[in-house]
UniProtKB/TrEMBL annotation:
The chain crosses the membrane at residues 6-31, 43-63, 69-88, 100-121, 133-157, 206-227. Signal peptide: none annotated. The keyword Membrane applies. Pfam families: Esterase. Coiled coil: none annotated. The keyword Ion transport does not apply. It comes from the Bacteria. Keywords: Membrane, Signal, Transmembrane, Transmembrane helix. PANTHER family: BLL1128 PROTEIN (PTHR43037:SF1), UNNAMED PRODUCT-RELATED (PTHR43037). This is Peptidase.
Length: 472
């Protein structure tokens, strides 16, 4: 290879490091709110192109050096990474992990570990910088593989956000690994001789063109990306995309207690509200995608809130629909290592009952996914508070199930759920029955995590819910 090749390789590797650092910083600062970035798609596409370019550079280098095992392992790892990326489109659109996606992720991680092993143990390891890069990538791959396997066997590891956190921290290891690759290219440049063999100059020219285009593209939207991230981080940008309509009748409120704690929530009042009558209260606990402080997207993440806001259901089942919003990095309860906001929700309910005409014998709690955990937690820690509960795709503590045997429960879960394994609901139902309870349970054998439409179309679900009254 000639010096111009190594110069281009060095520059592109440095560009990859810069993009990786920018992407990591954005995800660390914004967390789940990174999805609100209008330029996120462009950033990820740019990152993908730079990553592909660096992989091709390394592949060309390994082939030139005669590192056959390492070059083959890198080619396989790169191909599998693109397969995972392709399959991830369905994950983003459906919100659930398919078997093919999980298999592809596991195989991709294993291939990455093999590639890292090649950098360490094959002839490539004779170059100290490449060997060190292999050690870093091996460490990263083992961490991710361990966490994915753990997540597949845990009811809370994935939903609670632990897997996402580990992925973010582990992704940082790609930066020192590519710094070592860059240092290796820099060392090679000092010993390279001109001219190059077998068309290396044409490849270097193509790389220079790509590098120039990449820098121009990066500068074009880089400042906009940073500016928008600052706006979102400061909370000055609101995301109302998950509200079905701009004028839908959910009122926005914020509850504050005596300790200064705040809970944003949306409230749907009964049609033709008459303060001389008593109405049921339906507490709707949203899934993890509704977490935040914008006080809007929790409605789109709450299955029951959307169902009860339909006009026919508002006519047939007049009720107050209370949709609190859980802060990011917290939970409704029942998720290990995540602080619960259950006490704040209960205080907000008490406040509503002081102000509104609510029937205390007809409080109902519903929730899906993260909200499903919350429902189980609420009725096992405050069973006296609720007349009925519908946990959807959730899990709870079987040791506490005996506390809720007098609460009518109708639980729902998909047998193929990978996000929240179905055993979470099965264990709770079995524990309630063993303690003398008579819960209802519907399990969809061919469904995964996204069972919203199936639940909404369940005959007599709302009739069952609104027929329940607290036992005094």
């Amino acid at each position: 290879m000639n010096r111009s090749f190594y110069s281009s390789a060095l520059f592109l590797t440095a560009l990859y490091i810069a993009v990786a650092a920018l992407k990591s910083a954005i995800f660390f600062i914004l967390g789940t709110r990174a999805g609100e970035l209008s330029l996120l798609g462009r950033l990820l596409t740019f990152d993908l192109l730079v990553s592909l370019a660096v992989s091709l550079i390394l592949l060309k280098y390994f082939v030139y050096k005669g590192y056959r095992f390492t070059s083959g392992a890198l080619a396989a790892s790169t191909m599998l990474s693109f397969i995972v990326l392709f399959l991830s489109k369905d994950v983003r659109s459906t919100g659930q992990f398919s078997d093919s996606y999980i298999v592809a992720v596991l195989v991709s991680l294993i291939s990455g570990i093999v590639y890292a092993g090649g950098l360490i143990l094959s002839r490539t390891g004779e170059r100290p910088l490449l060997k060190l890069a292999g050690i870093v990538l091996l460490f990263q791959g083992l961490i991710l593989l361990f966490c994915v396997v753990w997540a597949l066997n845990s009811t809370t590891f994935m939903l609670g956000g632990t897997l996402t956190k580990v992925e973010r921290w582990a992704s940082l290891l790609t930066i020192p690994a590519h710094v070592l690759f860059a240092l290796n290219f820099a060392h090679e440049k000092t010993t390279a001789k001109d001219p190059d063999k077998a068309g290396g100059e044409s490849l270097a020219t193509a790389m220079r063109v790509f590098t120039f285009a990449a820098v121009c593209f990066g500068l074009f939207f880089g400042l906009r990306l940073v500016t928008e991230s600052i706006v979102i981080a400061n909370g000055t940008k609101q995301n109302d995309n998950n509200l079905k309509e701009p004028d839908q009748p959910f009122e926005a409120h914020i509850f504050s207690n005596s300790r200064g704690e705040k809970l944003p929530y949306r409230l749907l009042k009964p049609l033709d509200y008459d303060s001389t009558q008593k109405y049921p209260l339906v507490v709707c606990l949203h899934g993890s995608s509704g977490c935040g402080n914008d006080n809007s997207k929790q409605v789109g993440s709450s299955l029951t809130a959307q169902l009860l806001s339909e006009h026919d259901n508002r006519v047939n089942y007049p009720a107050f629909v209370f949709v609190p919003q859980c802060p990011t990095e917290k939970s409704w309860g029942g998720v290990p290592n995540f602080p619960a906001v259950d006490a704040l929700v209960f205080e907000a309910i008490d406040d509503l009952e002081r102000k509104l005409s609510i029937d205390k014998d007809r409080r109902y709690v519903t929730g899906n996914s993260l909200g499903g955990y919350g429902v189980w937690h609420f009725i096992t820690t405050r069973p006296d508070m609720f007349a009925a509960a519908t946990p959807i795709s959730g899990a709870g503590s079987p040791t506490l199930a005996k506390n809720s045997i007098h609460v009518p429960v109708w639980a729902f879960h998909g047998a193929k759920d990978r996000n929240v394994p179905v055993k979470g609901s099965r264990l709770m139902i079995e524990a309630m029955k063993s303690a003398g309870g008579t819960p209802l349970y519907t399990e969809y054998q061919d469904a995964a995590h996204d069972i919203g439409e199936k639940v909404k179309n369940t005959p007599s679900l709302l009739d069952w819910l609104f027929d329940q009254r607290a036992i005094n």
